[in-house]
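look at this record:
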Amino acid sequence: MPFPLKTPTPNRIIVRMGFLFLIVVALTVFKTQGQSVQASVVTVGGQVLRPQKFGIDELRNLKQIEITAKDHSGKDRLFKGVAVVDLLSVAGTTLGRELRGDNLLKYVVVSSADGYKVVFSLAEIDPEFATQTILLACEVDGKPLEKGEGPFRVVVPNDKKHARWIREVASIEVVSSAK
């Protein structure tokens, strides 16, 4: 004689679904544990006329430049991306001839996905003041930036230390120190 099949009660169904939900959550947490959070977009905001969000495709549609610079280990690498000044220009930041007086009190805070932050004066980004190009890189040596480094990274070729070569860039914010 075969075993009789019991029809699951609504309570048993809820318990089973709850158990399946916990398994899915646990697997998701286990899978992502130890991985850094990567920003898929870079926001440009603060004291700008037109706040922006740039994904990798939007950045590739902007003027691309290449810069050869020494990485942390001292090896020459070819970085490709968009000049930070171009991102600020699209967002409507005060630049060029308008960058004088109180506008010279503005600075840029670049933040990473893990909360690391660096600062640049607006004048050191503006080509009418500075000779170097600060780059928001998407590629190195013809390949996308590796996990933990990208998808976006700031490259500051003339800095002697790489402390401002911020990885996993999530936001660029224009701020004023004027009171």
Q: What stands out?
A: The first helix runs from residue 10 to 32. Confidence is low (pLDDT under 50) at residues 20-38. Residues 81 and 137 are 4 Å apart (CA to CA). The chain has one domain: 41-176.
